[in-house]
Design goal:
The complex is a heterodimer of chains A (158) and B (139).
Chain A (H helix, E strand, L loop, with lengths): L2 H4 L14 H14 L8 H13 L4 E3 L2 E2 L2 E3 L7 E11 L9 E9 L4 H15 L2 H8 L4 H17 L1
Parallel strand pairs in A: 2-5, 3-5
Antiparallel strand pairs in A: 1-2, 4-5
Helix pairs in contact in A: 2-3
Chain B lengths: L12 E7 L8 H12 L4 E6 L2 E4 L3 H5 L8 E7 L3 H13 L12 H32 L1
Antiparallel strand pairs in B: 1-4, 2-3, 2-4
Classes of the chains: A alpha/beta (158), B alpha+beta (139).
């Protein structure tokens, strides 16, 4: 599964203002509401579900990356977005490092395979240090989108 | 005639197959659990699945397996504690990562369980690993 299959370009936030875990999650969920990928009425429920998942163990998987996510019955297909924090946010990561790159995923409860394939793609790309670095330095949503598209194109070619 | 590498019994490779048995597959939380368990052992731990070989101590690597329910994976461990590592990691798969997906245990409970698991498996292992070691040295 490619980035373009689940990342909404309208919801990309290349410079989040929040400086807390919940703040970033809220800001990213709001971006999905603004992009009309999730319903306004479901926003609080989704934020709560993502935070509940974080309580089980941080999705800050190291290398300055976090993948906050939840299953939620209000979505019929996997939706996601990308955010970047210039300063980094304490996310209680597995390696203790602040997180700069966020991939937020909301998936339908009955599609565990799609969720796994999104995680597969994200983790495959994030093993590439150069990709992480350029993504963290991206200036605007379009630049982030272009980097994701480039990564998609490369993963098809390889 | 087989060419034998310099004898170093502590660097033998042992392997076992595991099946991803939980409904949600090897997603972020189980991958974290498996990587943490693998990191506890000195041996090199590798997972083989879908024609790729990945580092079992890396959550990112494990996630690239995208292993859904029912997926068979081979774990290879190379090093002085290979057998114990395989048993401990295999145990996590056997008990479906110690939780059902909707009602998982908290951090502190998990740590407690891990301790118990590793204690048990260490005892079992001394016996189960002998056969594999013999086979490897004869090949």
């Amino acid at each position: 599964m490619k980035f373009s299959d689940f990342v909404s370009v309208e919801a990309i936030r290349p410079s989040v203002s929040a400086d807390s875990k919940e703040g970033v999650i809220r800001e990213m969920t709001q971006s999905l509401v603004d992009a009309e990928k999730i319903a306004t009425s479901e926003m609080d429920s989704i934020v709560k579900a993502i935070m509940k998942r974080e309580d089980l163990g941080s999705t800050g998987i190291g290398r300055g990356v976090a993948v906050p996510h939840t299953k939620h019955p209000s979505v019929s297909r996997l939706v996601g977005t990308v955010a970047i924090s210039e300063r980094g946010v304490d996310f209680e990561s597995l390696d203790g490092e602040p997180v700069q790159l966020f991939f937020l995923l909301v998936s339908p409860p009955d599609r565990p395979g799609d969720h796994l394939r999104a995680l597969e793609n994200i983790s495959r790309q994030l093993r590439d240090d150069a990709f992480c670095k350029t993504l963290k330095e991206a200036g605007g949503p379009q630049e982030v989108w272009r980097l994701l598209e480039d990564a998609d194109a490369q993963s098809i070619a390889s | 005639m087989t060419i034998r590498r310099p004898d170093n019994p502590i660097d033998e490779t042992h392997s076992r197959e595991v099946v991803v048995a939980n409904e949600q597959g090897l997603h972020a939380r189980p991958a974290d659990l498996v990587a943490r368990e693998a990191q506890r052992w000195e041996s090199r731990i590798e997972f083989i699945g879908k024609a790729q070989r990945v580092d079992g101590k890396s959550i990112l690597d494990l996630l690239t397996l995208a292993a859904e329910e029912g997926t068979h994976l081979v774990i290879e461990a190379t090093g002085p504690d290979a057998c114990e590592a395989l048993d401990a990691i295999g145990n996590l798969f056997d008990k479906k990562f110690a939780s059902n997906d909707s009602n998982a245990v908290t951090h502190s409970e998990k740590t407690q369980q891990e301790k118990q698991v590793s204690g048990t498996s260490a005892r079992i292992n001394a016996a189960t690993c002998e056969g594999v070691a013999d086979r490897n040295t004869n090949s």
